[in-house]
Design a protein that fits this description.
Layout (H helix, E strand, L loop, with lengths): L13 H10 L8 E5 L2 E4 H14 L6 H18 L8 H10 L8 H16 L2 H4 L5 H9 L2 H5 L3 E3 L5 E2 L6 E2 L12
Antiparallel strand pairs: 1-2, 1-3, 4-5
């Protein structure tokens, strides 16, 4: 006689179903995770970049940092274009691979790392005293927080909001969350 067989159920579709359900919680009308300088990146690409950068960084990287770095990358890249300090996509991809990133780096990951490389040069006094970077120094001297806030970056509310004051990506409380009255 056979006994009752108990079957363990797994839910392999739970993650995709949850993702679809939660995707309805994103901003009204915004399907991308972020739009930078007219280029849209999906929510998945933003999450992938965060995971990839955390994989090669000594400490976990948060999504707001990834979006901020990627958001300022076109500005910085324009300043350094044509100099010996210009960062190429191939250099970034190679450095990520050398750092231990498994698989191919996403475009948003590459953009964020490009900004990190440019910021490292900006913080290097020896490099910034190089006559070749005089135009970059001149641009930096006129850059304001408001200029950063005016960059063409649109952030999905699930990740926060691009600060018009140039403070990067700030957390955003959705309209449907009501603060309790005191």
């Amino acid at each position: 006689m056979m006994g009752t067989v108990k079957r363990a159920y797994s839910f392999p579709l739970a993650a995709p179903v949850t993702a679809v359900v939660l995707s309805g919680c994103s901003g009204v009308g915004m399907t991308e995770g972020v739009v930078i300088d007219g280029t849209g990146y999906s929510v998945g690409e933003v999450q992938e970049a965060t995971e990839q950068l955390s994989e090669v960084s000594p400490e976990p990287v948060d999504t707001a940092t990834v979006i901020y770095q990627a958001g300022i990358a076109p500005l910085l890249g324009g300043w350094f274009e044509g100099t010996s300090y210009e960062v190429t996509e191939n250099e970034v991809r190679s450095s990520l691979s050398d750092a231990g990133l498994e698989g191919d780096a996403g475009d948003l990951t590459v953009q964020a790392v490009s900004a990190q490389r440019y910021l490292a040069v900006i913080n290097d006094q020896a490099a910034m005293s190089d006559e070749e970077l005089a135009p970059v120094v001149a641009e930096l001297q006129t850059l304001t927080q408001e200029d950063l806030g005016a960059l063409p970056v649109e952030v999905n509310p699930r990740f926060g909001a691009w600060s018009p004051a140039g403070d990067g990506v700030l957390p955003q409380v959705p309209e449907w969350i009501v603060q309790p009255e005191s």
